[in-house]
Design goal:
Strand content: 15-25%
Helix content: 10-25%
Strand order of the largest sheet: 1-2
Shape: rod-shaped
Oligomer: single chain
Length: about 100
């Protein structure tokens, strides 16, 4: 089977020279390979993301100890805001750190 002959270009102009088309251009296109290559090339544009190592521990909190009829979880210190007195640092607390990051 002879390969097709194609014309050549030189800076946008067709020249009189011709060359045979490489044999690889005669093979059928496999859709599964195209899909796989496209999927893997698209992964090069992903942006990294992760949980900060200090997330959930960026507040000053200390345990109130025993004798106050509350859980012994560290609590945010201070006053004058809704956040003061709330539990902190624990993975069971709202806005606390996650377990084993």
């Amino acid at each position: 089977m002879s390969r097709p002959v194609v014309g050549t270009y030189a800076q946008g102009k067709i020249t009189k020279a011709t060359t045979t088309l490489p044999h690889v251009f005669l093979t059928p296109i496999r859709d599964d390979v195209v899909r796989d290559v496209h999927t893997r090339m698209a992964k090069n544009h992903r942006q990294p993301y992760a949980v900060s190592k200090v997330a959930g521990e960026q507040t000053s909190a200390i345990s109130w100890g025993t004798g106050r009829a509350v859980a012994r979880i560290p609590r945010v210190s201070g006053g004058g805001t809704h956040r003061s007195g709330q539990g902190a640092f624990g993975n069971m607390c709202r806005q606390g750190r996650m377990f084993a990051p």
